[in-house]
Amino acid sequence: MLYWLTELSDGGDLFNLFRYITFRAGGAFLTALIFGFLFGRPLINVLRKKQGKGQPIRDDGPEGHFVKAGTPTMGGLLIIGALVTSTLLWARLDNPFVWMVLFVTIAYAAIGFADDYAKVSKQNTDGVSGKIRLVLGFVIAGIAAYWAAQYHPEALANKLALPIFKDTLINLGYLFIPFSIIVIVGAANAVNLTDGLDGLAIMPVMIATSTLGIIAYAVGRVDFTEYLDVHYVPGTGEILVFAAGVVGGGLGFLWYNAPPAAVFMGDTGSLALGGALGAIAVATKHELVLAIVGGLFVVEALSVIIQVLYFKRTGKRVFLMAPIHHHYEKKGWAEPQIVIRFWIISLILAIIGLATLKVR
After folding, report:
1. Beta carbons of 326 and 337 less than 8 angstroms apart
2. Cis (ω within 30 of 0) for the bond into 163?
3. Which neighbouring-strand residues pair with 169?
4. Helix or strand run (H / E) with residue 233
């Protein structure tokens, strides 16, 4: 919205700053951060009052989690409110990729909100039917994938770009939409599975979003793509503003989610943020890089898949408990120890993901 102030500029005044994506990204970050600090405590108070007993705790979960009973959930509303406000304020609203990512984020937040509401109101961990959630998730991802495909350059349309092997494009044809759906739905559910300890999911999300935001900015500038020898996707640079909003809102949320958490993110936040990561990857043609940058989420999801399949086949378990962060809890690792070590892993993977911009 504020971008339109550039129409008042003569090219050498304060209004000219709004032409620069990096300046507006900084503004989005600060706006989202301030939003989080201003509305965090009031939101928590409202959630605590409305939810009463808070988020239900699984009976078969780690014993240490029972002390968290009564903690309110749906804290993702704070993050979503912060990033949507900052994005609408600072991003160019004529950019289709911004609206595509916002659409996925808000739509998945709505699914997560319905699931959180069902859990809290019924005081059990069932929530909305998994099949309904999955079907809705596929529909939303399908719309977003088609949306992105309409604005990709003709040379990249329906093609899969490979990191490192930058001259290679795999023509997926009609399979591009199904592939993109899997990326978005998979990312949403992987982040959702990771959100099991205080602060565990939000920091890796901020790290991954920052990384993808930098990539989006790079592939949206023709001079950067020529230097880095990566594919140019016009318009994606504006996604950096959205990414900055995620980081600012995420930090504001982490202030209250740090152990011991005063509020949980809930599916409202985890599904929305995971879907946003997938949407950014599809928009920037960096779907495979997402698997590296978000490697922690991939491992968390794989640990659940492996556990379920192996148990059905043998009646035995590979892990003491899945997702894998619970396995380490069962092994005696303290919760802060697991969280910080997983943050470190996320940062390492992000650096590796960024390196793919130059390595070939």
Report:
1. no
2. no
3. 161
4. none
Residue 66 parent element (H or E): none
Question: Whole-prediction pTM value?
Answer: 0.94
CA atoms within a 13 Å half-sphere pointing along the CA-CB vector of 80: 29
According to DSSP, the residues that pair with 170 across neighbouring strands are 160
Instruction: Say how far apart CA 271 and CA 264 lie, in whole Å.
Output: 13
pLDDT at 59: 60
Q: Tell me the residue length of the chain.
A: 360
- Asked whether residue 183 carries a pLDDT value surpassing 90, the answer given is yes
Strand-pair partners of 159: 171
The identity of residue 276, as a single letter, is A
Chain centre to alpha carbon of residue 142 = 17
Mean pLDDT of 299-311: 96
Q: Tabulate helix, strand, coil % of the chain (nearest 5).
A: 70, 0, 25
The pair phi, psi for residue 264, each rounded to 5°, is -100, 150
Pull the structure tokens for residue 145: 């994938």
State yes or no: cis peptide before 260, omega within 30 of 0: yes
| CA angle, residues 17, 22, 92, in degrees to nearest 5 | 75
Distance CA 193, CA 100 (A): 24
